[in-house]
Write a structure and sequence with these properties.
The complex is a heterodimer. Chain A is built from 24 helices and nine strands. By secondary structure, chain A is an alpha/beta fold. In chain A, the strands form two sheets. Chain A has a six-stranded mixed β-sheet, with helices on both faces. In chain A, strands 6-8 form a two-stranded antiparallel sheet. In chain A, helix 19 packs across helix 20. The longest helix of chain A has 41 residues. Chain B contains two helices and six strands; from the N terminus they run ββαβββαβ. Chain B has a six-stranded antiparallel β-sheet. Chain B is globular, with a radius of gyration of 11 Å. Classes of the chains: A alpha/beta, B alpha+beta. Chains A and B meet through helix 3, helix 7, helix 11 and strand 9 of A and helix 1, strand 3 and strand 5 of B. Strand 9 of chain A pairs antiparallel with strand 5 of chain B.
Chain lengths: 589, 75
């Protein structure tokens, strides 16, 4: 069929946060929009496509909102898109287990678009609550087609597509009268259309939920859980890491032999530069990520993160922040750029800014491996997991402390109100989690790191062999020593601005050149141990937590704040904290 | 008995009478379905009692106790 004859239907997905829009979007388009069981997961607008029977469906996943009047950035984006009429058909996604609240938004959206469908999602969850939604009655009352779906299981997707096709083929309907009082109307309609049979299979889940956030067990359980995740990551990463190292060592030997006819410098660039750097980045970083991400995704999927934010809000409030900052810090554990973008969920502009500026103080997964490696090398008795956990705690305390100081000085204002939705517990979809977190997050981030590591390896090797690295690190030596490290380590921090994963490879590259040792593809633990004292390791770990964010994060800060000054603040704030701490440590140790 | 929403005990249910809190918060709570006449249940509360999770209209929402002191309920 000629491309010009293909019908194109643009479909907007709108609705409250956390009603499964992203799940539905993924199920329809096969795209991998990241989903999570907490409100505010989708920031910005995602677009995906589906070709079916000669029709091209373009789905637009709007950020979840509670209204369209635009009190937040997300609401403004969603509202503007719906009003613009860019979509041929708007699907208002509702939550079957709390239809009333979903309808409040639906009743605001429906009068604003010509062609709309109401999709009652999560009917499987509603059923577990003993609730049954009468779709036909709802359709009569709302004057639009209604489809019942369970997007997580793919139920009702065909019916939805069919309905979209029909609705967008119809001529636009007549003038629609807006509801006088959407809130009251939503209540009436929901009561008329939802039947409850009085059963509730959720009793057990509720009991677990209550225990997890209980006054007595909530906080200790949260700490144990985080410690457990870090322990599993550190302990579990050991074996695959050493296996990968051995594998890369073999590859190194084979590659050197195979490329031996080449001129020494070309072989050096390819093997000692490109191959060794990439191999080190992968060996150090892939195993912890492959363990941490699935575990973290389980927490996200079952809905534990908002409960954590709930438990932490009192502590955050003391620093002038709010519990949602805990969520953004958690996102920062994965990637600080994501954490900075995630700060959009914070309502108060000043709290949001302080959260953006301090997000890079929690170690992202690019820095995790450095902490794990140094921790397990220099503190084998204390248990690497405890050391890493302590580092994460230090990062969180640092972030909270600095944003507390900011909130009470430069960013001072009236205390703001706090409102956060806590979604129901959902059973984790383990298979999906494993695939999503391994393929999408782990491989994606590993790929991104490699695209930086490969050219960096080449450049580094050239620098190292033209003595540039040596003279630069000699130049930085006094500053490095003042910070309790040395010139090489400080240089490595500077050179790993594009990606923090480069830190250890750069240190190794610079040291092997200085000692004219034949480099190995592995992480060279012995080498690190021979050139670093434990005091240096401590300072390096502290500086790993508190130094300038990577360039991706800085660019994200600039995009989010639109201000060079604020981006500079995001650069200098953690750096200043790191310098002060390291100088103090250097004096004390 | 009428009281502030922050005084509700964990597990207790009450009916909203009057809402006189921060106008912006009031507007947002309305969008969640919190209007006079609807039943509200206290689901859980943080150790210090400063944050309360309330259930209404099928949703659980966390709010600070000082923000909901002026939402009057009766039970």
């Amino acid at each position: 069929m000629a491309a010009g004859k293909e019908r194109k239907i643009t479909v907007a997905l709108a609705g409250n946060p956390n009603v499964g829009k992203s799940t539905m979007f993924n199920s329809l388009t096969g795209l991998r929009q990241h989903t999570g069981n907490w409100p505010g997961k989708t920031v910005g607008v995602a677009e995906g496509m589906l070709r079916r029977q000669g029709i091209e469906y373009v789905f637009v996943d709007l950020p979840g909102t509670y209204s369209l009047d635009g009190s937040s950035e997300d609401e403004r984006i969603a509202g503007e898109y719906i009003r613009s009429g860019a979509a041929d058909c708007t699907v208002v996604v509702c939550d079957g287990s709390c239809l009333e609240r979903s309808l409040i938004l639906a009743l605001q959206i429906l009068p604003q678009c010509e062609k709309a469908i109401v999709c009652v999602n999560l009917i499987d969850e509603a059923k577990r609550h003993g609730l049954c939604v009468d779709g036909e009655k709802l359709s009569l009352l709302l004057h639009v087609p209604v489809v019942l779906t369970a997007a997580g299981r793919g139920e009702g997707m065909e019916a939805l597509l069919e309905q979209i096709k029909q609705v967008s083929a119809q001529p636009p309907g007549g003038e629609k009268t807006p509801w006088q009082d959407p809130v009251a109307a939503a209540g009436q309609i929901a009561r008329a259309c939802v039947l409850s049979d009085g059963t509730d299979d959720e009793v057990f889940r509720r009991r677990v939920d209550r225990l997890l956030v209980s006054r007595r067990f909530g906080v200790p359980f949260m700490l144990l859980l985080l410690l457990g995740i870090i322990w599993l990551t550190v302990w579990g990463a050991n074996y695959p890491s050493s296996l990968l190292e051995r594998l890369f060592d073999l590859g190194y030997a084979g590659l050197s032999k195979w490329l031996s006819p080449l001129p020494w410098w070309l072989k050096g660039v390819l093997v000692d530069g490109l191959y060794a750097t990439c191999a080190r980045v992968i060996a150090v970083m892939l195993p912890p990520m492959a363990i941490f991400f699935p575990l973290f995704t389980v927490l996200e999927d079952i809905g534990y993160l908002p409960r954590m934010a709930f438990l932490l809000d009192p502590y955050m409030a003391r620093c002038g922040g709010c519990g949602k900052q805990a969520l953004t810090l958690c996102m920062g554990l994965g990637c600080n750029a994501v954490g900075v973008t995630g700060c959009r969920i914070i309502d108060s502009p000043r709290e949001r800014l302080s959260a953006i500026l301090t997000n890079a103080m929690v170690p992202c997964n690019g820095r995790f491996p450095t902490l794990i490696l140094l921790g397990s090398l220099f503190f084998p008795d204390a248990g690497a997991a405890l050391v890493v956990a302590f580092c994460v705690a230090l990062g969180v305390v640092g972030a909270m402390g600095v944003s507390g100081v900011l909130n009470k000085t430069v960013l001072r204002s009236e205390p703001s109100t706090f409102l956060m939705e806590i979604p129901p517990f959902r059973r984790p979809r383990l298979g999906k989690i494993l695939i999503r977190s391994l393929l999408d997050r782990t491989l994606y981030i590993a790929g991104r790191a490699l695209t930086v590591a490969a050219p960096a390896g080449v450049i580094l090797w050239i620098f190292a062999n033209t003595n540039l690295l040596a003279s630069a690190s000699a130049f930085l030596q006094p500053v490095g020593l003042l910070l309790g490290m040395n010139g090489v380590i400080l240089l490595a921090f500077i050179l790993s601005l594009p990606a923090n994963e480069l830190l250890i490879p750069v240190i190794l590259m610079a040291t092997t050149q200085a000692q004219s040792l034949q480099s190995v593809a592995g992480v060279g633990e012995g080498l690190l141990q021979s050139t670093m004292t434990w005091q240096m390791a401590v300072c390096t770990m502290v500086f790993t937590l508190f130094h300038w964010p990577c360039s991706t994060t800085l660019m994200t800060v600039y995009r989010e704040t639109g201000s060079k000054g604020k981006t500079a603040a995001a650069f200098f704030l953690p750096t200043a904290v790191g310098c002060i701490l390291c100088i103090l440590l250097n004096l004390l140790l | 008995m009428e009281m502030g929403l922050d005084r509700l005990k964990v597990g207790q249910q009450a009916t909203v009478q009057r809402i006189e809190t921060d106008p912006l918060l009031m507007q947002r709570l309305r969008l969640f379905g919190l209007v006079p006449g609807i039943p509200v249940r206290c689901r859980y509360r943080t150790p210090g009692g400063s944050v309360t999770a309330l259930e209404f209209c099928g949703t659980v929402v966390a709010l600070r106790s000082r923000d909901i002191r002026n939402i009057r309920v009766s039970c």
